[in-house]
Amino acid sequence: MYFRRVHANPKLKFLRRNSRNEFKAKLKHYRKFMFVRDPFVRLISAYRDTLQGYDKPFYEQYGRLLLKKYANQSNPAKTKAEVLASGVFPSFHNFIQYLIDPETRKPLDEHWRPMYQLCYPCLIKYDFIGHQETLSEDAKHFLRILKLDNDIKFPPAYINVTTKDVVSAWFKPVPIEDRKKLYQIYEMDFKLFGYPKPVELLES
Asked: What is the C-alpha separation between 136 and 130, in angstroms, rounded?
């Protein structure tokens, strides 16, 4: 919910909304940073946040499509009351099927688009790239780099409880061939941002 508010917040001025000259000037003179997350953990989070329960815009845009195409639901529920009464939502495997489907329209939704396609780290020279797994430490380090650590205190971060065992449980219903296809889509994120290849998910 929080990230959807960020994307739709009219008070935030996105870089793409600047003039070409402003765009170039900010890329040249502003400090640039980004935070990344383990690609497969990020997908689990995106699925839980948008598709596991009823979220009107996501259900209407993606949920019914996934149920029709991958869950053999010829006429999925339409209204909130019908959806909640049926209790039928796309499974995590349905979500993965959608992502690896060659017919899926690209680019993917920003909630599950590969980070290298979302933030262009190969085109933009970032001053700092942090990881959500070490968010507090990385944020404090970046504030020290900016010499703002005495003026700004980063709030306590949510503890990431998505362990390897939890990830394995989520991927258990997903066939290995589908996992391998998924890895190909997010391979660049794994490599660029220092995440090890999830061999245990791809070979077992």
From this structure: 10
**Interval 174-187: pLDDT, tens:** 999 999 999 999 99
E strand spans, the chain: 33-36, 128-131
Q: Is the dihedral of CA 62, 66, 68, 71 positive or negative?
A: negative
Q: pLDDT digits over 50-75, tens only? A: 999 999 999 999 999 999 999 999 99
Do 111 and 50 contact (CB within 8 A), yes or no? Answer: yes
> What is the C-alpha separation between 143 and 141, in angstroms, rounded?
5
Question: Are 201 and 40 a contacting pair, CB within 8 Å?
Answer: yes
- CA dist., res. 26 & res. 24, Å (int): 6
pTM score of the predicted model: 0.90
SS3 state of residue 6: helix
User: Angle, to 10 degrees, between the axis of helix 176-192 and the axis of helix 92-100?
Assistant: 70
